[in-house]
Amino acid sequence: MNITDPLVLRNDVVLVPVAELPPDVRAKIDFDDGDYTVSRMHGRMPSQIIDPETASLLQLFREPTTIVEAVIRNSRALAKDPQIWLDELLPHIGGFLRSGVLVPNEERAVHEMKPQLDAGSFVDGWQVVRCVNLIEDSEIHRVRKGNVDGALKIARQPGPFEGSVFDNEAAVLTHLAGRATAPRLLAQGMHNERPYLVIEWCDGTDSGAATQYARHDRAALLAICVTIADAYAALHDANVIHADVHPRNILIDN
Questions:
Q1: Which of 1, 139, 174, 202 is deepest in the core (most CB within 10 A)?
Q2: What are 126-143's pLDDT values in tens digits?
């Protein structure tokens, strides 16, 4: 990436002052005065805590700008030496590029995604409440049928159910039925030529955020680690190997 190429924040990036978060959320976070959370509404990136100076730099990328231009403007506002400030910021900017927070201006339209299901629409009798996760190949919605809440996972592109990752996941959930390590499978099928699953809705915090909140509480971190290890050991005992292990695929009870 050339530092003279214009970059821009994705439209789904949300910057929120920690001070504006609900008290119960702030109580779980270690932060300093003026800190912000940065997150993407869509994608696998967990929320991050950033200092106000980094947040003020990111805000400059709401409109296309180069790294050099943004750092010069930001260093002037903060009364910092531009070259020293650039050296300090480059690792952070690299992280924002890798996580998709910042993208090349000419690629923003390619990276922008919108849910293919609207709130209030129906899939096999399940009413869509809201989109909770949107990634390149699938989207997840909270859905409801009567007084039962579920998580609808549906492919973003047409394809067969048989032989797909949805077929495999349905088989695994059926195999694990009744075990505490996996949610119940509530429905499966095709919608507009796209395979889908509906599984039991589980409240919780993804493990990336949970460990960030508890990073200064050694006992809490150890408890989370032990719980995760026990869950995967139970899966292995059931002859199941999870092939997509990452923090947002692990929910920790609140």
A1: 139
A2: 999 988 887 778 999 999
